[in-house]
Each structure stands twice: as structure tokens, then as C-alpha cells.
Amino acid sequence: MRQPQFMRSNTFHWAFMVGGVFAVFIIVLFGFIYWKIDDYLTARSDRVITAQLEGIAALPPERRLEAIDERLRQDPRGVQLAAIFAADGHRITGNLESLPSDLRIDAEAQGADIIRTDRNGREHQTVRAIARRMRNGDVLVLGRNVDEAKEISHVVGQALALGLLPGFSLCLLAGAWLSVRAQKRVEEVNQRVQRIIAGDLRERLPHRTVDEPFSKLAVIVNGMLDEMETMIHALAGVGNDIAHDLRTPLTRARLTLERGRTNAATLEQLQAVADKAIAGIDQSLAIITALLRLAEIENSRRSAGFGTVALDEMLREVCDIYEPIAENKNIALRVGATQPLTVRGDRDLLIEAVANLVDNAIKFTPEGGKVDIALLRGEDETIVCVTDTGCGISEQEREAVLRRFYRSDKMRNTPGVGLGLNLVAAIVKLHGFRMAIRSGPGCRVEIVCPNRQD
Amino acid sequence: MAKVLLIEDDSETAEEITAELADRGFEVEWSANGIEGLDKARSSRPDAMIVDRLLPGMDGLTVIEALRKEQVRTPVLVLSALGAVDDRVRGLRMGGDDYLTKPFAVVELVARIEALLRRPAESRETILRVGPLELDLIERTAKRGDRAIDLLPREFRLLEYMMQRSDQLLTRAMLLEEVWNYKFVPATNLVDVHMGRLRHKVDGPDDAPMIHNVRGAGFILRAGS
């Protein structure tokens, strides 16, 4: 038989388990109470029969018989036991058939198996009893049937049933209710998610203002969906940009080939056409390569391959490589890295990032300008900073250039693929560093590396 | 005649490479999948191998690792659509093999294969000589004939690399990787600027040029005319 949906849910299983544990606890508690009351009643009846025994024993022998008869008469419930046995063991009076063999004489009250005998017949009973030898050799036995214990257990059992069954049922009901409710929420969320999967990116998960885990989760997921929606829109825009950027050199190559095919008369002319076409195709390929490399860096999780990188040495190396280029453009390229500073990272990628920044700086700085590479040590961070005296990046564009795939219109007309800053941003992000663009004399780009806590 | 084993699953690419290498006087053997390629590498003992990374049967790096385990030291050029942000690729490069990202220019491929085949032997020579050019690796001095050439450390390293591989086409990417330790191609024509400066120093106004620019490909250092 298939269980109903709510009974298979985790919530319900938990409720069932908690209910079970609760029930066991209650049963143990009631057991303890029962044991305690039983103990108390036994002690009380022991005290009573001991006191009565003292009382009867104090009487003269002939009055004892009367006292016992009196006592048995005034016992409508039939719980009292009393008897006197002669020294030879035969019963003188009372409702005990014989002197119980296991009953120690002149001891404290104790449990004993006796045979009760009266008008109604004989009956085996387990009772509390006490025996004392009188001065004339008779043995006086008093006892009390502690059947109340049974009654108490009955009462306790009833109370248990009355309290436990509804409690346990309530637990199960609560579990079922919670699980049904959770399932309804999940179903609701599922429907929305299905719509999102189907392509409706504006759909969001329902949430209430109450401080409740489900709503919190929904808010978190909605935040993620917001981010994804922006990203997907950005990506769609990027797709158009890339298509545009790829088409330009390809169109040029195609035109060149087409015209060359009709116009070229000599082998040299044809070769020149081919060279021009190859250059156009190479530029398209360079864009694709840059995009792939960007994706590769963004997707890589290779912090395992990180080592210690000496930044000062690395900066000097980058400066060394770019010095002739700067010199050709009459730009003063300087590196200010006096103190040895290290970070954890991938040396190749970090060189690539800094080289890209320096490359950009030289490209956008007019002749006679300055490019400075500096290494600064802050309280909690090490900063690599490239400053130029170029046109700078306007305030509005500053955030945008760090956004994925953003390309400034200014950059579009300069040679190069124009994904350099994105690449730097990707490398910086991979390392867990930060990148900041400020205005220096021209533009000032900082790579902020938080110092390691070790 | 050097024998090259090409393991590449795309038949058109393979045909182009084979044709180009044959033109350059190589004997090329082609295999379209990893397992067959590994068998051929074992049986025909090529002088160099070109291996695509993504192959049916067995991927390229696994083929190379299998060969290396058998102590086969044939130099390998790995082709891949993926870049080099990968530890396995680093290991490969440290083992003396080379790596080329698709798409690539055919001249680049040929230059790299030739470089792999003509790896300079470990030499104890402390003075390199190519034609009239002389480089003292201990004293860190250079001269052409009797004329001393004043070189910056980076220029020295560039010239040293070129002299060890004289008469070989060296592409810009190769120079960037080997001399500057750059694993990427920068936007600016870095190599040309450095080479221009070196050439200015090496080839004086009255000397016959030794550093030659091969259009669209790279540079060659030649001993003489």
C-alpha cells in the first residue's frame, strides 16, 4: 500500500520520531511516579500494621483475641489479616490458615505469601505482614493486603492513556500539517522555477515578510536570480558586440579577397591580397582567442598551483620588457618597488595582468607622458599601482570597464582586442584580489592584494 | 630526413599539416586516434610527434604520459583548442615538450617542430660563435669581429637564445615564451621593438645583416650571406 504523500516527508518522520521519544519519556516518568507511590503506600501500611501489632501485643492475652476479631469485623474491603498461632503452630484465631514459613518472627514488616481463609474460602495472597512472639509463646501475626498498588497502577495507566494518546496524536497531526505545508511551498516554488526554466527570467520565488526560513531562502534565491538576469542580459549584449567586432575584420578580409580575385594581375599582387586577408582573419582569431582565454581564467579553479610571487622583481621584469616600447613613444616608464613584497599567486597570470595594465597605460598616454608602476605596502594590503598621464577613464565609465565584456567606445578605435581590462579583472578575481580605478594625473589602476594572515 | 608522427582526428587539419611538413622535407605519418597513435609511436619510432589534445580513443596527454612511462623521450608538440592555464601543460613544458594553441599559423607549427628536432645539445661551451659574432657567457660580453657590442641583460639573453638556434626560424611567440617567459601574446609588438634594438646593435651600418625578419613569421639569425 502506498503511503500518502505527507507521510513520506522528512518533516513527518521527524515529528513521528519526536513523538515517539516523547512517549517513551512520559512512560518512564509515569513508571517512576507509580514506583514512588507504591513505595510510599507500602511504607505507610508497614507503619500501620507495626503500630497495631504493638497495640494488640500490649493487651492481656485474653483481650487479644477480641481485638483481632473486632479488627476483622471492621474490615469490609477484606484487606486486613490477623491471627494468633500457638507455640506449636496451630491457629488460635484469625484469618490466616497457617503461620507463613517465610515470615520471620520478631522482625520488621515484610512481604509474605500467605493463605487467607474465611467464610469465602481460602485464597493465596501476597501481603505485607509482621509477626511477633508473645510472652506466653503465642505468635501474633498482622498483615495488610496492599492491593491499592494495583488500583494505583490502574489509575496511572488510565492517566497515561488519557494524556499520551492525544499527545502523540497531536504530535503526528502537527508533523503532518507541517509537512503538508512545506510540500505546498515546495510545489509553489517548483512551479515558479519551472517557469524560469522555461525561459521566463523575470519570474521570482514567492516570499512573505515574516522571518521564516523558507522566505529567507526565497529572498536569497531571488537575489541570485536578479544577478543572473543582469548577467544574461549583459551576455546577450556582449554577443552582439562580439559579432560586430568579428564582422568588421572579416568583412574587410572578404572585400580584399573579392577585389584581389578580379583585379590582381601578378603573383605579387595576389600575395599582397592574401597577406591582407590573413591579417584580417588573424584579428578575428585574436578576438576569439582573447575571449576563450578570458573564459578559461574565469572558469579555472587553480589556486592549488599558486606559489609565492615576488612582486618587486616581477614589476621590474615587466618594466624591463616595456621600456623600449615606452622609449619609442618618448614616455618615461618608471618602476618604484624598493621593498621586497610577496603575494600568493600564479606568477604567469600576474605578469599577464600587470603587463596588460602597462600595455594599456602606454597605449593611452600621449607622447612625452609618464607611466609609473609602483608597489605600495598598506596595513593589511599590498598594492600594485599603474599610473599614467593619458586621457583617463571617466567617472561614469569606471565601474563599467570592470564589468564583464564592457568595451568603451574610445577603445574600440584603438588597435588591440580591447578585452585587456576584462582579462586583468578576471585574473585579479581568481586570486581573490581587488581592482580599483582612480583618477591620477590620467588614469590610475590598482591591484589590491590583501595580506595573508599567516 | 626527419620522421614526424601526427596524431590528429580532424582530417582536413591533418592534411594541411602533412602537406606543409612534406614541403619542408619531413616524412609524416598520420594517425587519427589516440590508441592507434600510441601503437605507431611505439613501432615506428618517430623523431618528433605532433599530438592533438582531444582525441577519440585516448586523449593526447595520456598518450604522451604512457610513452614517457616507457622511457620514450621523443619530443612532442601538443595541439589544443584549450589554453595553457593547466598544470598538466606546465608539466609538459618542463619536460622539454611544446604546446601550441589552436588556431595557429602553419609557420608557427613548423618552426616549433624544427626547434624541437634541433634542440641545442647541452654544451659546456662558454663562448658561442655564429659567423663573426661571439658571445662570452662568463664575461657577459659580445663582439662582432673586433667591434664590442654593449648589450642590456635582456638583449644578451635574446642574442644568446638566437645564437644557440642560428639558421632556425624563431617565431614571436617562441621568443616571448623562451626569452621573456611570457605565456601569452601581448597586444603590442613587444618582440619587434626589442629585436629592432638588438639588430641595431648587432648589424652596424657597414655590416652585412645577420638578423633577418621573415615576414609574417618571425626572425632568423644567419651566420653569413
Structure, described:
- The complex is a heterodimer of chains A (454) and B (225).
- Chain A is an alpha+beta fold.
- Among the domains of chain A are: 213-289, Helix Hairpins, CATH 1.10.287; 303-450, Heat Shock Protein 90, CATH 3.30.565.
- Chain A contains 10 helices and 12 strands.
- Chain A has helices at residues 10-58, 61-73, 148-197, 213-263, 267-299, 311-328, 347-364, 395-402, 409-412, 420-430, and strands at 80-85, 91-94, 110-118, 121-133, 139-144, 307-310, 332-336, 342-345, 370-377, 381-388, 434-438, 444-450.
- In chain A, the strands form 3 sheets. A 5-stranded antiparallel sheet of chain A has the order 2-1-5-4-3. In chain A, strands 7-9-10-12-11 form a 5-stranded mixed sheet.
- The longest helix of chain A has 51 residues, at 213-263.
- Chain A is rod-shaped, with a radius of gyration of 49 Å.
- Chain A starts with 9 loop residues before the first helix and ends with a strand.
- With 225 residues, chain B is an alpha/beta fold.
- Chain B has helices at 11-23, 34-44, 60-69, 87-94, 106-117, 153-164, 172-178, 190-202, and strands at 3-7, 27-31, 48-52, 76-80, 98-101, 127-130, 133-136, 141-144, 147-149, 170-171, 211-214, 218-221.
- Chain B is elongated, with a radius of gyration of 19 Å.
- The model of chain B has no long low-confidence stretch (mean pLDDT 86).
- The chains are: A alpha+beta (454), B alpha/beta (225).
